[in-house]
Amino acid sequence: MLRDTWLVFSRVMLPVLRNPVAVVFGIAQPLLYLGLFGPLLGDTGWQWFVPGLLVQMALFGTAYAGFSLLPEVRTGVMERLRVTPVSRIALLIGRVGKDVVLLVVQSLLIMLAAMLFGFRATAGQMLLGLGLVALLGIAIGSMSYAIALKVKLEYVFASVLSASIVPLMLLSGVLLPMSNGPQWLYWLSRLNPLAHVVDAERSIFNPGTVTYGLVSVAVLVLVGVFYGVRTFNKESA
Amino acid sequence: MIEARGLARRFDTKTGPVDAVRGVDIDVAEGELVGFLGPNGAGKSTTLRMLTTLLQPTAGEATIAGHDLLKDPAGVRRNIGYVGQKPGAGQDQRVADELDFQARFYGLSKHDARKKVAGLLERFDLVGLEKRAVVTLSGGQQRRLDIAMGVLHDPRLLFLDEPSTALDPQSRRNLWDHIRQLKADGTTVFLTTHYLDEADYLSDRLLVIDHGAIVGEGSPDDLKHQVSGDLVVLGTPQAQVVATKFENAVVDGEVVSFRIPNGDRALPSLLKDLDHIGVELHSVQVHRPTLDDVFLTMTGRSLREDSNAA
């Protein structure tokens, strides 16, 4: 299983390593947020804003991962792999692994860039922060692959994504504190597991509790991986 | 090598259940090259997907390469090779990498995989393309890469789904040579096709499927013999007269056609008899039955694409 996962991981990682430019382009968007939105929050805003930005990267970086699967489903690649004895779980986890590794690298780059603006973090905080981002990436990436496998068509997958990601992001308090809004909006955000993950990520770099966020992310990982594995195990997938 | 009993697959669609395969029995002995012939939509690919563990049957059972299809799909997978209809190599991957990973998915060590891949590149005429991205390969090259990935672990049983679709005549011929070589090396081959010449040229034995059920079985020659006789076509102004002498003769203007057994040998005396009764002939043709005639006799419809479209 571990060997299979490593092989699947290496197979999808290799083209990225051969053409690492894509990884750099991947951080263009968070860099723009950092440079063009971050300063609006004032000098003291960085400690609050950067952790949220990292969670947003995890969301956007892995939610779209399913798109990379669709050409392989449409051609015979997935089919060819599924006739080999390779573990079905490895076919999912190996791919998610690639996305999470890239996410962690990009998040680290963003944190370092943020330090130029005035973000402050110890090595330990950065490690914890990246760990939480990675867990969220595993959860969302697994779900993304499973949903892509289910809907099979790019344009359907794209609408499923935009219909789910935008409300998740708006209700997570990534850009502005949810407590600024009316009571009903705040309570709605409390129903969003991502909001708790954002709170936890902020608590790593500021005083506060990470408990709810950890519980949220643990549940997300369990649900995401379970759903992903089940979908990849299914015969018609 | 293949022993399937009552294999069936039903798909639930929005317009109700569709029985794509309605309980087929398939027996293939070790070393055989069996062609699975049928028009598009007859259930060929669905059957193949069931036999290769890609699709769960809704009924029936099978033993493939000594392993139970339902209870030990992993055992089946280790012992079979499969080349699907669609290209199986990742477009953004390099040729040698895809082969290498494929070898390692079958459990080969890094070192063994490298040796194996070198041999395969040679055998399938892919030397020099190792570092090329799959997307830049021609159709024939991609197909050879697909086959190389399918036979890489020396499977005892190889499944090929429409192997020559969309290939130019030369690549097709080349592919056929590879398939025959595999058989010569002792591999059991099970291939689907809707091309009659392919089925005729490659197969020891044919299974004919239509509407999800096996409607005929035998060697290409056996099946052709089932069509009663050769088609004789005579051009004569006295077509009507000739027509009265043969059963089921068809007259079309000055052309009369009918079937007789062993037409090539029966023809000389037949022509002499016609001459005796004063029939004047200006053309004579004898057609051996084709697999299309076989298919027409068995199912009442033609296998050819153009007649499907008509």
Automatic annotation (TrEMBL), chain A:
Keyword list, A-Z: Antibiotic resistance, Cell membrane, Membrane, Transmembrane, Transmembrane helix, Transport
Cellular component terms (Gene Ontology): ATP-binding cassette (ABC) transporter complex
Superkingdom in the source lineage: Bacteria
PROSITE patterns associated with the record: ABC_TM2
ABC transmembrane type-2 domain segment(s): 11-235
Transmembrane segments: 21-42, 48-70, 100-121, 127-148, 155-178, 210-229
UniProt GO molecular function: ABC-type transporter activity
Entry-linked InterPro entries: ABC2_TM (IPR013525), ABC2_TM_bact-type (IPR047817), ABC_2_transport (IPR000412), Nod_factor_ABC_transporter (IPR051784)
Keyword Transmembrane helix: yes
Protein name: Transport permease protein
Species assigned in the record: Lentzea albida
Lineage, broadest ranks: Bacteria, Bacillati, Actinomycetota, Actinomycetes, Pseudonocardiales
Automatic annotation (TrEMBL), chain B:
Name recorded for this polypeptide: ABC-2 type transport system ATP-binding protein
Gene Ontology BP annotations: response to antibiotic
GO MF entries: ATP binding; ATP hydrolysis activity
Annotated localization: Cell membrane
Bilayer topology term: Peripheral membrane protein
Coarse class of the protein's main subcellular location: membrane
Chain ranges of the ABC transporter domain: 2-236
Keywords of the record: Antibiotic resistance, ATP-binding, Nucleotide-binding, Transport
PROSITE patterns (alphabetical): ABC_TRANSPORTER_1, ABC_TRANSPORTER_2
Domain of life: Bacteria
Gene3D superfamilies named among the record's database cross-references: P-loop containing nucleotide triphosphate hydrolases
Originating species: Lentzea albida
